[in-house]
Amino acid sequence: MASLGASIFASLPEPLYSLAVDAVDALVAILVVAVFFIVGYAVAKVINYIIEKLFKELKVEQLLAAHGIKRIIGDFTFTRLVTFLVNVFVILAFLGAAADYVQIAVLAEILVGIVAYIPSLVEGMLVILVAILLADYIGALITKTKELPFTGVIAVIIQIFFAYIALVLALPLILPGVDVTILTRAFELFFGAAAIAFGVGLALAFGYGLKDAIASAARKHQAFFDDMFGKVETYKRKRKR
Question: What is the pLDDT of residues 49-61, one digit of tens each?
Fold first, then answer.
């Protein structure tokens, strides 16, 4: 930004000239920053109004409350936290533009760094929210499925699965630079061990005389096992013949 004071006070003696130029330039910088701030605040208000309406229509707070999540940080609900971050992001973006315009390089760099981080933070939070909502939806569908055995256990496993995936995806966004390799590896080992344990447990169940209990559970969910493995009763009849 060209110095306005330099052109106005060019005829003044040197001491007064420097003082007057600095004063005018500072005043102009303050006015520019104030204008950018007001415009940024107005834009943030409009965006937040749209976000609040959208979250209200989607019943985001009610869905989170159903999972026991009423507050995210302190007194901040999820909606309030998102709108707060939008306020900060938009206003800082405008202030960064103002700092660049009035040539305050250090301030501009700091604001640019903060503004670059906020979208990543919001993205990480949205990943967690979507995972919670999706896990809730799929868990509800599984629980309502009468043909499927052990629906409660399966629903819990599905929710844990989505929560872990959300953590692995969201952590690098919320905390840039964090290495999630150990979490990914732990996830692979856990499900590998779970599959082995399930197979061994099933073999032991048959080996130690639990065939009758398993057969009883299978009869209760005959339709499910018929769909998965074919008509068991029909097969038995053919063998008897």
Answer: 999 999 888 888 8
